[in-house]
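Format notes (please read before filing issues)

Several people have asked whether sequences and structure tokens are stored in separate files. They are not. Every record keeps both together, in the order shown below: the sequence lines, then the token lines. Line labels are part of the format and must not be stripped during preprocessing.
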Amino acid sequence: MKDKTEKNYRPNVAAIVLSASYPAKCEIFIASRIDVVNAWQFPQGGIDKNETPKDALFRELEEEIGTNQIDIIAEFPDWVSYDFPPAVADKMAPYDGQRQKYYLVKLKKGAKININTKIPEFSEYKFVPTNKLYEYITFFKRTVYKQILSYFKKEGYI
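Then the structure lines:
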């Protein structure tokens, strides 16, 4: 039996997708979830058994935004965890939250985003400057996003 203090985190990968015009213009891809009203986020998804985080990154991008034509710029050095809010927790059972590996990636020139995928997860998307990002991002992901983006900014990537 699971100890009540022991959390069960879903292994997950997330991508901070920069437009193909990076570094001349630093805009970040965000998308609005189909299943949660006004919940904007980065592309992300579970890591399958026997799959590396990088393999999951390319698969999830193809599944969620219709392309995996990216270059990896950097990888966040640690895994980051967050808990699901009550409104999401039931849907994500048996997981209490997610343990994520973050990548900063750039779309390759000519890559085409298509959110009308086989199983669509997003209703719309946009590229926003970093200083406008938090006007959109869903509340329970803001702390993690700030941590990740602060690191990439400190390292000189964004």
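For reference, the curators noted about this record: The chain has a mean pLDDT of 94. The first strand starts at residue 9 and ends at 18.
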